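Q: What residues go here?
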């Protein structure tokens, strides 16, 4: 890069860094295969009232984050552009600036007015923790983020949902103690947004050796996910084409099921219990089995003649009975709304942690069935064998 071109970019970046507006800079398009990084991503942070620049040095095997002084950035960024990269993308709240170099050193600067969604708040020392690395390279392959590293507007709800899911798992594992390995079965992994995020959280945040398996009946999805795993050399994660009933019986530390439809949630629960899972995490949906099984007269019969209310009651009973069944099998349970309705209508979460058997739980389970004329809960069928 010639001196004039370098000065143009330097002046531009200095102006952006010197402002109090949120921004992101992405250095990309490596100059040679000897470059140690694929990208460098820069964002502002505030540490103890001092503005710093958080720099993520991204390679094919790992990410390294360093916080540098703004004064150092001018020199370092010049070195990056002269030695490592051809391109620099700058994103602010209202525009995108592309600084593109040719191999002959010609510089093109392209500015576009674009509304970028940048979640950076310099007014607080401690921003709300994100439990999902939206810049994870696999999310680009899954279509959740753009080449510039921003979550697509259509993917924002999914990102928020998965982030909240991992946050709840973080709290659930607060007393998990020191471990070497952690085994997870994700039942019905689908496009695997959660599966990739969970594997990264357990390995990067907890420091455990992971053995995470996503079970999915659609081979096109498992093929796609396994290709992404291989592409990014992700350790401890693989996907198997199988439904829940085909999953092998083997010891597991955690079973998760995100939106496993109707009785598939019960199958995931049964798998966890039967394989001695210490933790079971569920976001159930489409609770139809109990609604079809309900009959007879009871105190709420006049109310549930309205179909929508019958549906809601059936959903509540389905998940409430699941919690009681887990308690009867020796789990401590919680049922709660894990994310607001603006992100998904399927917002109930059930978490279970291995503990003591509740001696009253099965009696209460049977009494509720009798009260509402429920012939059976599918979980009972799964334990008849």
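A:
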């Amino acid at each position: 890069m010639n001196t004039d071109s370098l000065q143009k970019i330097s002046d531009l970046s200095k102006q952006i860094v010197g402002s109090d507006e949120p921004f992101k800079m992405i250095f990309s398009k490596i100059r040679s295969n000897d470059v140690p990084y694929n990208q460098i991503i820069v964002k502002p942070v505030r540490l103890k009232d001092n503005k710093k620049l958080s720099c993520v040095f991204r390679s094919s095997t790992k990410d390294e984050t360093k916080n540098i002084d703004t004064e150092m950035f001018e020199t370092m960024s010049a070195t990056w552009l002269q030695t490592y990269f051809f391109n620099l993308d700058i994103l602010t709240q209202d525009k995108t600036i592309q600084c593109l170099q040719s191999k002959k050193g010609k510089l093109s600067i392209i500015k576009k007015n674009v509304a970028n969604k940048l979640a950076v708040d310099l007014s607080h020392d401690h921003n709300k923790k994100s439990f999902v690395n939206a810049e994870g390279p696999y999310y680009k392959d899954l279509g959740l983020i753009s080449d510039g590293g921003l979550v697509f507007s259509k993917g924002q709800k999914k990102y928020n949902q998965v982030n909240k899911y991992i946050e709840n798992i973080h709290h659930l594992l607060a007393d998990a103690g020191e471990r070497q390995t952690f085994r997870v079965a994700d039942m019905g992994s689908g496009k695997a947004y959660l599966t990739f995020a969970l594997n990264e959280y357990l390995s990067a945040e907890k420091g455990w050796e992971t053995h995470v398996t996503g079970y999915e009946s659609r081979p096109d999805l498992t093929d796609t996910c396994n290709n992404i795993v291989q592409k990014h050399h992700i350790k401890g994660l693989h996907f198997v084409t199988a439904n829940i009933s085909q999953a092998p019986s083997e010891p597991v530390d955690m079973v998760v099921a995100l939106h496993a439809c109707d009785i598939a949630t019960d199958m995931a629960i049964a798998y966890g219990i039967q394989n001695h899972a210490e933790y079971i995490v569920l976001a159930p949906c489409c609770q139809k089995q109990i609604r079809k099984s309900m009959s007879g007269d009871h105190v709420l019969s006049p109310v549930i003649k309205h179909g929508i209310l019958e549906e809601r009651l059936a959903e509540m009973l389905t998940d409430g009975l699941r919690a009681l069944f887990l308690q009867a099998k020796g789990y401590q349970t919680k049922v709660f709304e894990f994310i607001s309705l603006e992100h998904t209508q399927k917002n109930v979460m059930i978490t279970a942690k291995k503990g003591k058997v509740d001696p009253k739980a099965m009696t209460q389970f049977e009494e509720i069935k009798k009260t509402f004329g429920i012939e059976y809960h599918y979980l009972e069928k799964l334990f008849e064998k």
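A: Context that may help when evaluating the design: The chain has a mean pLDDT of 85. The longest strand covers residues 39-47.
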